[in-house]
Amino acid sequence: MAERTNAAPGSTSSAGTGEDAVASDVAIEDPAHNEFALIDRILERLGDAVASEILLPPGDDAAAWVPAGGAVIATADAMTEGSHWLPHLLSMYDVGWRCVAANVSDLAAMGATPQVLLVTAVLGPTMTIDDLDAFIDGLADGCRAHGVQIAGGDVVRGRSTTFSITALGAARLDRANRAIVLRRDGAHPGDVIAVSGTPGLAAAGMRLVEQARTDPPADAAIAAFRHPVGRVDLGLAAVAVGVPCAIDISDGLIQDLGHIAQRSGVGIEIDLEALPLPQAAVAFFGTEGARTLALAGGEDFELILVARQNVIESLEAEDLTIIGRVLEQHPGEVVIRQADGAPYPVPQGWDALRRWPLPRLQ
Amino acid sequence: MAERTNAAPGSTSSAGTGEDAVASDVAIEDPAHNEFALIDRILERLGDAVASEILLPPGDDAAAWVPAGGAVIATADAMTEGSHWLPHLLSMYDVGWRCVAANVSDLAAMGATPQVLLVTAVLGPTMTIDDLDAFIDGLADGCRAHGVQIAGGDVVRGRSTTFSITALGAARLDRANRAIVLRRDGAHPGDVIAVSGTPGLAAAGMRLVEQARTDPPADAAIAAFRHPVGRVDLGLAAVAVGVPCAIDISDGLIQDLGHIAQRSGVGIEIDLEALPLPQAAVAFFGTEGARTLALAGGEDFELILVARQNVIESLEAEDLTIIGRVLEQHPGEVVIRQADGAPYPVPQGWDALRRWPLPRLQ
């Protein structure tokens, strides 16, 4: 191959970088120094998580596949060190897994069938080949847990580590050629709000990792933080029974409900007492702490479904809890009601530009 | 909207970041500090470059659209500061434009119809709101030049600036349900190698920007470097007449020919004298310098087409030049022949992990 015969793979010098050049004492050196050798290594390590059965698997200028429905559904997220993970809280394996979960969860929230992922990796100067291998292993296991495969991507060296994931799936079209999906703007007054699982579990898990707590009730919370699984089957079931509106809980229950309220032009009222609190969160942080984590802790990747009550009930999902309702009043706003009807103060949610996801606990 | 009512948008404090926290003296502050406000600003600035006519435009968990053919074609690239651009050589407007060109070019190289892009942006601490606006303007103009629109994405803050772009398009299926595309593994002995434009023009442009040369012949080269346009129409025409094999010139002519040679299991022979050299490159760097730039300078985003000679000729493309042929001999290798048949030494190409793209000139 011409570029190998003629390349000087040990060299880190290059023309034109000038004083802005990246530091040359990079942690990833030969044999993985060459971009193409590194890609071969990654593809081999991914194993059956590579989409080798699609029309055109990784290796050409682009991947090609047939969507499993008339509409293609696509979402992309960036994950960057310092903002989305800190090394003492998540291993690179965990980061790889969460990259998959976060993106597939967005497809689950549409009621779409996830199919393939594209992954770009910018490797910062502290990234070792062991880190990369761990990331790839987490990515591969995350793919297996979500029934998706890697169809392509890119790997480059940079000043800090960032991964960007595009998740691609499909949905059916109705007779008017509209995609049959769960939308943020599909909430109507009279609908109920249902939530899957126990929101705040992942946020509790992060705090327990921070505090190095490993007592038995911590296990489920730590697993929810490190290895969450997007609710693909629930999203597909919801679209099948005619649920019109959903979102996944990535920014925190209140903030994500706010997106629905704003885009649907409706008010949302949540019953504080109806919130299904995670057992681990109550055990370690008390009822008030667990409520804060449930309302403002993000990255649970559970689903909020909004529909008529009989539609929600027809799902017969075991871990679905009705927690509130959609109103005509106060459009765009979310209000939490205590048992006596008084409003409950809403803790602040996760904003990617405000960095690390967790609300402060008292 | 709940997150606005309850957020403290001026605050840069956050729990859990510890000593690994990103520096708080970030350049992007209110009113664009809040992720959602920033996304609104970006969408407004993108204007008609936002894919507002697709099934589900930006604003939901994912975008939805109908592919313009039975197969979806997808490619993703990351662009990161210090590796893909240096501030004294490219403005943020140029970076935005090139993000589009580089990715759409990969679809052009497949003979696919480009449709939508997803863009994730990690904004480093030195990024100002003016930089972001300039990037968005370049992105929008790049979209207009390539006939594509932005369907979604993500914006977060990080330790250095990285953009990742996924370009999505479509291709038709044949009767056996195979995607009708231009493939890297489609070269056969007896085919000729054709190249569009004058490879090395963009690489010459970068050197001229470095040297602050603005004499008239420099203009075209600098434009090719700063605002390249992927060859979408040529790719579509090639697939229509039955060209089986293509790649775009992103890593350098020799390196990209090497991908074809390796994946097709064939040898490739290039006639040195047949190379169409850029006028500006010859004028500023002499014939030998222009040859080096043509063979090893990447990011021209021109196309290499490989097919029977009569198929290439049926394209009647004005700027297409036959530069060599496909052989059974020396599979996986590319050889350049001088007029007397002697091999010409191949300069080193661009490897993303080796940093900045340009080969050394003597």
Quick structural gist:
Chain A is of the alpha+beta class. Chain A has helices at 2-6, 35-46, 92-108, 129-146, 201-210, 218-226, 232-241, 253-264, 279-296, 309-314, and strands spanning 63-65, 71-80, 113-123, 149-157, 162-171, 192-196, 245-248, 267-271, 303-307, 320-327, 334-337.
Describe the structure.
Two copies of one chain form a homodimer. Chain A is an alpha+beta fold. Chain A folds into two domains: 26-171, 2-Layer Sandwich (60s Ribosomal Protein L30, Chain: A), CATH 3.30.1330; 192-344, Phosphoribosyl-aminoimidazole Synthetase, Chain A, domain 2. Chain A is 32% helix and 20% strand. Chain A contains ten helices and eleven strands. In chain A, the strands form two sheets. Chain A has a six-stranded mixed beta sheet. In chain A, strand 3, helix 4 (129-146) and strand 4 (149-157) form a beta-alpha-beta unit. In chain A, helix 3 runs parallel beside helix 7 and helix 5 crosses helix 9 (279-296). The first copy, chain A, is globular. The model of chain A is unreliable at 1-32 and 350-362 (pLDDT under 50). Strand 2 (71-80) of chain A pairs antiparallel with strand 1 of chain B, so a sheet runs across the interface.
Topology, element by element:
The structure is a homodimer of 362-residue chains.
Chain A: H1 2-6, H2 35-46, E1 63-65, E2 71-80, H3 92-108, E3 113-123, H4 129-146, E4 149-157, E5 162-171, E6 192-196, H5 201-210, H6 218-226, H7 232-241, E7 245-248, H8 253-264, E8 267-271, H9 279-296, E9 303-307, H10 309-314, E10 320-327, E11 334-337
Parallel strand pairs in A: 3-4, 8-11
Antiparallel strand pairs in A: 2-5, 3-5, 6-9, 6-10, 7-9, 8-10
